[in-house]
Specification:
Helix content is 41%, strand content 16%. By secondary structure, the protein is an alpha+beta fold.
């Protein structure tokens, strides 16, 4: 069963970037994420839409 979210560590591995760079992208709002307590969760669907260059309104941009 696939999870609905990625951790910051998982997206760092997927993007082949340093964990600190991934955290900075999440904090700056560059990478779509949701804060849950002390943890950052990255919704899979929003992450893949972001990678594909899709905007929040469903278009590309």
């Amino acid at each position: 069963m696939e999870t609905l979210t990625y951790s910051v560590e998982e997206i760092a591995k997927l993007l082949r970037i340093a964990r600190g760079v991934a955290y900075q992208g999440v904090r700056d709002g560059e990478i779509p994420a949701v804060r849950m307590g002390r943890r950052w969760l990255i919704p899979r669907d929003r992450f893949h839409a972001w990678l594909n260059g899709e905007t929040e309104d469903g278009g590309e941009g």
